[in-house]
Amino acid sequence: MRKMLPLPLMLVLVLSACGAPGAEKGEIARAETITYQSGKGPVEVPANPQRVVVLSTFAGNVLALDVNIVGVDSWSKMNPRFEELKDVEVVTDDNLEKIIELNPDLIIGLSNTKNVDKLKQIAPTVTFTYGKLDYLSQHLEIGKLLNKEEEAKKWIEQFKAEARQAGKDIKAKIGEDATVSVIENYDKQLYVFGDNWARGTEILYQEMKLNMPEKVKKMALKSGYYAISPEVLSDFAGDYVIFSKNADGDTSFQETETYQNIPAVKNNRVFEANAKEFYFNDPISLEYQLDFIKKALLNK
Fold first, then answer.
1. Domain span holding position 91
2. Could you list the mean pLDDT of each consecutive 10-residue stretch along the chain, which spans 300 residues?
3. Model-level pTM greater than 0.90?
4. 72 and 173 within one domain
5. In a domain? residue 70
6. In whole angstroms, what is the distance from residue 20 CA to residue 8 CA?
């Protein structure tokens, strides 16, 4: 195993190389910066970031704004929708050596990201608290951070208009009182979701104003998600069900008589999606989820 150099020495070597007279064209230019007002105070960040490391959750937001990613978390890497990440390095907040080698000019993570003080020595580092902002405000903040606020605003306006119109069309087709639930299997556990935990929930409940089953509303609305056993799924299943399916997880419950007797199952109103494409609520994921929902509930 290769020995890791002490962090201060590695930083000196990396930064010296970037500032060397012979540095190649395209190396990080740190001269042009903007001040981003983060939740923890102002942060000086590149005005035009070229090499971003995303440690969790926000890769799709960055990609949607046409900003280059050089390091990403493993969950984002697994998403088939993020084709641009095919050759991007997987990193964690413990991979300081690898992150240094990637020579980032900006690092984005969550509030629970480890080693933030050390990451800040490598590049400007901004963290967000998951769920503190609603999903569209979060994209707008990423836009501000990347100096692409107007692009983010434009996308938000267009997306809301399209989702709300689709919601009206869906209600006209399935009825004002029809309920929709979102379920997901992970490992050997089954979950239902509220209105703000990705997997299309923001679209269905916030934008389209579709109805959540009462049991889901009671148990999952506040926390965002709720673990259930397959035996009680019928209590949480709506008239229509979006099933965010992990094919490598336990799906044996689908073979049971209990599952087969759920009205949504008997009426062919369960629509299976690839969970890896449904985990996030960035623009790339949201556009795919919206198309999926429209096809499922409008037969388009």
1. 24-147
2. 40 42 42 91 97 96 98 97 97 97 98 96 96 95 98 98 98 98 95 97 98 98 96 97 96 96 98 97 98 93
3. no
4. no
5. yes
6. 18
